[in-house]
Design goal:
Helix content: 40-55%
Number of strands: 9
CATH class of one domain: Alpha Beta
Organism: Jejubacter calystegiae
Strand content: 5-15%
Protein name: SDR family oxidoreductase
Oligomer: single chain
Largest sheet: 7 strands, parallel
CATH topology of one domain: Rossmann fold
Radius of gyration: 19 Å
InterPro entries: NAD(P)-bd_dom, NAD(P)-bd_dom_sf, NmrA-type_oxidoreductase
């Protein structure tokens, strides 16, 4: 039995879809906060179980009978460390034999502020005694695709990443890699640094989006403070605006780049290139 936490989220849903390509639905457990959101999974024969990252008892019950756990990190930045400890304790209580955790690219040396809670979680896993592997996911290309519409309207794509290369891949690629790891014979002990085969700057992203859309688009580099202020002005919550600005600034330092091609090695194919993602988003 393979369990997936956060199975109703954007990455979790894709991971379940990928696992179904090689695992019978009866061998999958989808752990979600609100089962009503994934009634289609239950209809497909998957065991849907309710549990919140903050409820260790519910997590332990939800993991009953699971041998492997795809532990997708919580989306609640600032609360992850405590929530992740609940998941690991619950896995210990339920007798889970293997955990694959979705961490952050080069978490142990990343300049991103997001790295701290991932590093803490990695340490918890090491202390737990449960065999585990780390899926250190790079940036999702969708983090930038959401800004394309407004950017094309104004002809300007803003950020503070400078000329930093960003090896972002679509969530679908990370989900497929996770499914590959979960179905390996002996995946424990591995640390995978996962990123797209090719990196690009935000200037290159703007150029490619302009080419595909036929509309003028240029990249304007701002200071981290000015970019955060612009995001706040666009209506983003303060915490999210700060996180995105910090991440862009870290990209300028190489924090979102990797050229080891470990993601495509797990996939057994090249990662989905930026032009393909842009074409899909713009269509």
């Amino acid at each position: 039995m393979i369990a997936v936490t956060g199975a109703s989220g954007q990455l979790g849903r894709l991971a379940i879809r990928e696992l179904l390509k090689s695992i019978p639905a009866s061998q999958l457990i989808a752990i979600v906060r609100n089962p009503a959101k994934v009634s289609c999974l239950a209809e497909a024969g998957i065991s849907v179980r309710q549990a919140d990252y903050s409820d260790e008892t519910a997590l332990s019950n939800a993991l009953n009978g699971a041998e492997r756990l795809l532990f997708i990190s919580s989306s609640e930045v600032g609360q992850r460390s405590a929530q992740h400890r609940h998941v690991i304790n619950a896995a210990l209580s339920a007798g889970v034999k293997f955990i694959a955790y979705t961490s952050l690219l080069h978490a142990d040396r990343s300049p991103l502020g997001l790295a701290a809670e991932h590093v803490e979680t990695e340490a918890m896993l090491a202390e737990s005694g449960i065999p585990y592997a780390l899926l250190r996911n790079g940036w999702y290309v969708e983090n930038y695709l959401a800004s394309l519409g407004p950017a094309l309207e104004h002809g300007v794509f803003i950020g503070c990443a400078g000329n930093g290369k960003i090896a972002a891949a679509p969530r679908a690629d990370y989900a497929a890699a996770a499914a590959s790891v979960m179905t390996q014979d002996n995946p424990a002990g591995n640390v995978w640094e996962l990123a797209a085969d090719e990196g690009w700057t935000l200037s290159q992203l703007a150029e490619e989006a302009a080419r595909i859309s036929g509309k003028p688009l240029v990249y304007r580099n701002l200071s981290e403070a000015d970019y955060q202020a612009a995001l706040l002005g666009a209506g983003l919550p303060e915490g999210l605006a700060a996180m995105l600005a910090n991440s862009d600034s870290a990209a300028a330092q190489g924090g979102l780049y990797d050229d080891s091609h470990q993601l495509s090695q797990l996939l057994g194919r090249p990662t989905i290139p930026l032009p393909q993602s842009l074409s899909a988003a713009l269509s």
